[in-house]
Design goal:
Blueprint: E1 7-19, E2 24-26, E3 31-32, E4 36-53, E5 59-62, E6 65-66, H1 69-86, E7 91-98, H2 108-123, H3 130-140, H4 144-147, E8 152-155, E9 168-172, E10 180-185, H5 195-205, H6 209-228, H7 232-251, H8 262-276, E11 281-284, E12 291-295, H9 300-308, E13 315-319, E14 326-328
Parallel strand pairs: 5-7
Antiparallel strand pairs: 1-4, 1-14, 2-3, 4-7, 4-8, 5-6, 8-9, 10-12, 10-13, 11-12
Helix pairs in contact: 2-3, 6-7
Bound molecules: (3R)-3-hydroxy-3-methyl-5-(phosphonooxy)pentanoic acid (PMV).
(3R)-3-hydroxy-3-methyl-5-(phosphonooxy)pentanoic acid (PMV) binds next to helix 2 and helix 5.
Length: 331
């Protein structure tokens, strides 16, 4: 399907995995070693415009300034995939901006590559159906495949060597289990170990690696059922289990991968105390020191205020579940 089009703008939101992905079964195609299940957020937004041009190279502007060369090259390699699929050679100008800190374990690569996949494929004249868009976004970043969809989303590990079945699909809409999502920012700098490098190291050295991969299908089945039943307490318990299992795996990697800082640990303890006092709130952390808390909407504001009072927490982003990637009108 082709329509003449040389520019397009898309927005996409970050997502947070409740059942985590850590490890690849194929590095070149970016195929995950485990499935994962995430929530797409209403906040934490990337907005990306792609414009084809006649110049000699791809240009990338990130958050208002020219992107660093490694970032520009990563985006250019991704655009090569889109050019190959569309049968074009034109270079592109990419203008992309996040309304949250980039590269600090807040899944900027998820919203970034979901928005880029949609804007660049559209600018190149392609109208990809959502599964194909998810497979394309995955090539940029594993978690980006999930940000194509809204609400609760499952990313399949897939079995095929070509990765055609390693795509995400919606599990339930946001209304299936309304959540308050609170992101406690404990540091604004970029993360120490990239997720790709960390995953490789865990697969190569962590003694629990096989158990991690083997236990994922049961976690996914349990989470799917809990989401569809609207069982918040079960979703919360499964969320913390998957998160701590992943970070245990990271700690058992050689050399150990430790993404947490003091405030991360303080927030974990605070949320456990809140729960003991009757609040419905559970933590999850990714490849960075921020703590994401899922809570019952009725408890959201009290939990957010408690997080703001934890020493070392710089600010708390309050959000909820939101929609998938979509095209928007250019300004
Ligand atoms: O999308 P990547 O390659 O940055 O990997 C993300 C991995 C985690 O955020 C730690 C877990 C997940 O499933 O999102």
């Amino acid at each position: 399907m082709r329509t003449p089009r040389t520019t397009a703008t898309a927005v996409a939101h970050a997502n947070i995995a409740l059942v985590k992905y850590w490890g690849k079964r194929d590095a070149a195609l970016n195929l995950p070693a485990t499935g994962s299940l995430s929530i797409t957020l209403a906040g934490l937004t990337t907005r990306t415009t792609v414009r084809l041009h006649d110049g000699p190279e791809d240009r990338v502007q990130l958050d208002g300034v020219p992107a660093a060369e490694p970032v520009r090259q990563r985006i250019s390699r991704f655009l090569d995939l889109v050019r190959a699929e569309a049968g074009i050679t034109a270079r592109a100008e990419v203008v992309t901006a996040n309304d949250f800190p980039t590269g600090a374990g807040l899944a900027s690569s998820a919203s970034g590559f979901a928005a880029l996949a949609l804007a660049s494929s559209r600018a190149a004249g392609l109208a990809l159906p959502p599964p194909a868009l998810s497979a394309l976004a995955r090539r940029g970043s594993g978690s980006a495949a999930r940000s194509v969809f809204g609400g609760f989303v499952e990313m399949h590990r897939g079995e095929r060597p070509d990765g055609a079945d390693a795509i995400a699909e919606p599990v339930a809409p946001p209304e299936a289990l309304p959540l308050a999502v609170l992101v406690a920012i404990t540091a604004e700098g970029p993360k120490g170990t990239s997720s790709t490098a960390g995953m490789e190291r865990s697969a190569a050295t962590a003694p629990y690696w096989d158990a991690w991969v083997a236990s994922a299908p049961a976690d996914l089945a349990a989470m799917r059922a809990a989401v569809r039943a609207g069982d918040l307490a079960r979703v919360g318990e499964l969320t913390e289990h998957s998160c701590f299992k992943m970070h245990g795996l990271m700690l058992a990697t050689r050399p150990a991968i430790l993404y947490w800082n003091e405030a991360t640990v303080a927030v974990i303890h605070r949320v456990r105390a809140l729960r003991a006092a009757g609040r419905a709130a559970w933590v999850t952390m990714d490849a960075g020191p921020q703590v994401k808390v899922i809570a019952a909407p009725v408890d959201g504001e009290a939990v957010a205020a408690a997080l703001e009072a934890v020493p070392g927490v710089r600010r708390v982003i309050r959000t909820a579940l939101g929609p998938g990637a979509r095209l928007v009108e250019e300004p």
